[in-house]
Each structure stands twice: as C-alpha cells, then as structure tokens.
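tl;dr need the bound structure. longer version: we got a ligand (iron/sulfur cluster) that a collaborator sent over and nobodys looked at where it sits. i said id run it. heres the input, straight from their email, havent touched it
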Amino acid sequence: MLLGDKDISKILIGCCGAYCKTCPALINKSCRGCKLGYDTGNRDISKAKCQMKVCCIKKKYETCADCSDYSTCEIIQEFYNKSGYKYKKYKQAIDFIRENGYPKFIKIADNWKNAFGKYE
Ligand code: SF4
Ligand code: SF4
C-alpha cells in the first residue's frame, strides 16, 4: 500500500514533537529520523538510545501526544525541562497536537525550515 502525503508526514513527527520532515539533519541524511525504519525491520528498537522513542514505539503510539500518561511522565517532562529553546518548542508541538490533532499540526509544520517553528 502506498502511503499518502499525510501519512508520511505523521511518520516524520518525532515522538517528542521534533518535526523530522523539515529538520536539516534528515534532509542532509546525517540523521535517519526518529521513527523511520522501525516498522520495516531496517532498524532495531532495542538498540535505540532515546527513552521516549523506545517507550512510544513499543506502545505503538505515533508520538507522546497519544499517551494518557503524558502530563505526568517523567521521561518526557524531564526532557522538556532541559535548558535549550528547542525543548520548549518540541513540547509546544506535542501540546499543539494534543489540542488540535495531527492534520492541523502537519499543515503548519510543513512550512518550517527546522525541526520546530512558528504557529501563526
Ligand atoms: S529526541 Fe528522541 S523522541 Fe525526539 S526526535 Fe530524537 S529520537 Fe525521537
Ligand atoms: S510514557 Fe512517557 S515517554 Fe512513554 S509514550 Fe507516554 S509520554 Fe511518551
């Protein structure tokens, strides 16, 4: 089955809210993206280092936005509390998805030039 553009975009949202589709590291191929390859067996989730990713993929969630433990989860909330602008932006992405759903997020995020961006 061929994936539509919308489905491809969803696979390219990192579990933490980083948008891989517009991330320069994915575009220049220095990163394979957060989730690509685990569904096909090209990558082995038991070797992944990111705790959010391991948890999220094992639970078969698209991102941490789908998780009922999101607000109290120490793994993701500690990640968002790290110092650095990008962590706040990744949190904003997941919060936006939780409030507005994936299609609205993808429509906005497809215009970004980085793994995060503006919402106006
Ligand atoms: S930090 Fe983890 S969850 Fe976020 S994009 Fe990277 S691998 Fe995925
Ligand atoms: S428990 Fe935490 S890391 Fe795991 S899917 Fe839920 S929010 Fe993400």
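gonna send this back to them w/ a short note. The radius of gyration is 14 Å.
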